[in-house]
Design goal:
- The complex is a heterodimer of chains A (about 100) and B (about 575).
- By secondary structure, chain A is mostly helical.
- Helix content of chain A is about 65%, strand content about 5%.
- Chain A contains two helices and two strands, in the order H-E-E-H.
- Chain A starts with a helix and ends with a helix.
- In chain B, helix 5 runs antiparallel to helix 13.
- Chain B is mostly helical and about 575 residues long.
- The chains are: A mainly alpha (about 100), B mainly alpha (about 575).
- At the A-B interface, helix 1, strand 1, strand 2 and helix 2 of A face helix 5, helix 11 and helix 13 of B.
């Protein structure tokens, strides 16, 4: 059961990470910015086309020129998930060797 | 949209070269096909690199090449979110399904569902769902090939659909899975180069500093873009449930898309299945981030150069952009790449449709027929399916991405849920899967059936609290939340109240996970079904949440507007 638990736990953790950084991240940007950045979206706060005050995006918060949330989304959903996937593969390769033994 | 004007000889020549090489590869690969196993799953002999590249070409269909750019012009940030989810979903597919499916030794998704749950009825039901999903996906891609031909030659899209469809039918019929795999590997390499280089030249023409690496090469132009299109990078365009729908559609849709799953039945073992997916996600990410750059360039170009493109012509934008900013040589490359992208995906879909009809339907109805006859019938079936799909595709949907995202939602609810639960929860029963599959698939169609087909007024349809998820802006994505959550809830609840499956069926779960012995406690916890139902109910509750006025202005403004 030890190996079984390892498989399930590692799979669960990796799936949650991949789901968050790949799939849900953009949604979290929407939900969390109101909660943690203490910005209440009101019509007065809106500039044309849902202005910056509602968002995590701040003008000086940029990486390689991109708004931070955009940069994180595209990098997490590409390099981030590739790394998580590779780590999961290495662990499963080892588990498979133990199962064979 | 008017065609380019004159016949584009260079693009035509490169496209013909791609088509001819594809047919030659199939003729060469035919020598490897000696049995029905060779024809459908390439003798389970494909390595990780080959399979990874083949998966890349399946993933990077014309949806990516031309559809995503069109979606970015329309949806800006949300289009990037769609594809971020799509990129990451390959790792979801690997973690939840890929190596386990390979160990199961089935030929197709439908065979897996049938054998895992011990039900022939489920096999036929899943074949029906597979046909719906594949036809939607195929129609979008064949339309894309039509778009390329129209732009190149000025001939109606129908000509491209017929010519492209016939070529791909020919090489799939000839080469079987070996031919499809080697072709997809070749087409992957072609389309990666044919996208990256023209986009780099376009970025250079726009004046970006990092043009030589398109995925991250346009950061220095962000201030100009924000000055021109202030909301380009702003995420809050939709109710958060839309992003969650995208996640569910991508992650479970890709597990349900039978032509992706079929690739895992072709590899040597579970380890190759895992590593091929890692290679695939890296390359798919590279191309998708390049297409984000294309979308950025397209929006910037339209808004700064004073170019007016009608919405119906957004699918042509990649070619318009490369034509205007890069020149004929690069446009020819982009055209050849898009032809390769369309062919590879269509080939994978034809393969699964042929396999589904001959292996899963005819093989079940006539088990006494030997493999040699089935192989001969497979060649015939593949050809007939190709012709039928061409005929169906003559009246494709307006935007190719819409059809394909719709296919994702239906695949997620109809096939993805049974596969995931079949791998991770022994207690899942055939009755639960049947109910979840039927209801999930029907919900995927609900908006279309009630509003487009039956002509019902959106405000009068039953359960009005959910009505906005069936129709209106991005309704074809949002309905995925309803379809997937209902499919999960019904499958789990009905399974719980129906007789437990036999030991033989449950033993398959342990075997799929690589265990030599059987342990009743493995993959049989009550926590998983409870968590799945609780999360699904939470999402349904979240869908009923009414945001404060002004929070999601786009939703309020366009709630009942037809797309």
């Amino acid at each position: 059961m030890k190996d079984y638990k390892l498989e399930v736990r590692v799979t669960l953790i990796c799936f949650i990470i991949v789901a968050i950084i790949g799939g849900f991240f953009s949604s979290f940007v929407v939900i969390l910015n109101q909660r943690f950045f203490d910005v209440v979206p009101t019509p007065e706060a809106l500039v044309q086309f849902y202005g910056e005050t509602m968002f995590v995006f701040k003008q000086n918060l940029a990486v390689m020129g991109f708004p931070l949330h955009y940069f994180l989304l595209i990098m997490f959903s590409w390099i981030g998930v590739t790394v998580v996937g590779a780590i999961w593969c290495i662990i499963m390769d080892r588990l498979e060797e133990r199962q064979r033994a | 949209m008017e065609p380019r004007g004159e016949v584009f000889v260079l693009g035509l020549v490169l496209s013909i070269i791609v088509l001819v090489i594809s047919i030659l590869i199939s003729i060469w690969a035919r020598r490897f096909t000696r049995s029905i196993g060779d024809y459908y799953v390439a003798g389970r002999s494909i390595g990780a690199v080959n399979n990874g590249l083949a998966m890349v070409s399946l993933a990077l269909s014309l949806t990516t090449f031309i559809g995503l750019t069109a979606l970015i012009i329309e949806g800006l940030y949300i289009a990037v979110a769609v594809y971020a989810s799509f990129t990451a979903s390959f790792i979801g597919l690997m973690i939840l399904a890929a190596p386990y499916l390979r160990r199961h030794k089935s030929f197709t998704t439908m065979a897996f569902i049938s054998e895992r749950y011990g039900s022939k009825t489920l096999r036929y039901m899943s074949v029906v769902v597979m046909l719906i999903v594949s036809v939607l996906y195929l129609a979008g891609n064949l339309k894309g090939i039509g778009i390329v031909f129209y732009f190149l030659l000025g001939v109606p899209e129908i000509v491209g659909i017929v010519v492209g469809g016939l070529v791909v039918t020919l090489y799939v019929t000839l080469g079987g899975m070996y031919g499809v795999t080697y072709n997809q590997t070749f087409q992957s390499i072609v389309l990666i180069f044919c996208l990256m280089f023209p986009v780099a030249i376009v970025l250079r023409a726009l004046g970006t500093a990092g043009w030589y690496f398109p995925p991250l090469g346009y950061g220095d132009m962000v201030p100009q873009m924000v000055a021109t299109v202030p909301h380009y990078f702003l995420p809050m365009l939709e109710h958060p449930i839309t992003y969650i729908a995208i996640f569910l559609g991508s992650f479970f849709g890709i597990i349900g898309l039978p032509h992706f799953v079929m690739r895992f039945f072709t590899v040597r073992d579970a380890k190759e299945a895992r590593w091929s997916t890692v290679l695939c996600v890296f390359l798919v990410g590279l191309v998708n981030t390049t297409v984000y750059a294309t979308g950025f360039a397209a929006v910037y170009y339209m808004n700064t150069a004073g170019v007016s493109i009608p919405a119906a012509a957004y699918d042509y934008m990649v070619f318009i952009l490369v034509d205007a900013l890069a020149g004929d040589g690069w446009l020819a490359l982009a055209v050849a790449g898009s032809v390769a992208a369309g062919l590879s995906t269509v080939a994978g879909l034809l393969m699964i449709m042929g396999a589904g009809l001959i292996h899963d339907v005819y093989g079940e109805l006539k088990p006494e027929v030997d493999d040699e006859k089935k192989l001969k019938l497979s060649y015939l079936a593949m050809f007939v399916v190709g012709i039928l799909v061409i005929l169906f595709s003559l009246n494709p949907p307006e935007f190719i991405l819409k059809a394909i995202m719709w296919a994702f939602g239906i695949a997620a609810a109809g096939l993805g849920v049974p596969i995931v639960l079949g791998i991770w929860w022994k207690r899942t029963t055939k009755q639960g899967v049947a109910v979840g599959m039927v209801v999930g698939t029907l919900i995927g169609f609900l908006g279309w059936i009630m509003i487009d087909y039956m002509g019902m007024n959106p405000v009068n349809i039953p359960f009005p609290i959910f009505a906005r998820y069936l129709y209106g802006p991005l309704g074809w994505i949002k309905v995925t939340v309803l379809a997937v959550t209902f499919s999960f809830i019904l499958t789990v609840v009905v399974s719980w109240f129906t007789p437990e499956p036999s030991i033989e069926l449950k033993r398959q779960v342990d075997e799929m996970h690589g265990w030599k012995d059987y342990d009743e406690k493995r993959y049989n916890s009550k926590i998983l079904p409870v968590v799945i139902v609780a999360l699904s109910l939470f999402l349904l509750f979240f869908m009923t949440w009414e945001p404060e006025p002004g929070t999601f202005p786009r939703m309020e403004g366009q709630e009942w507007t037809a797309e």
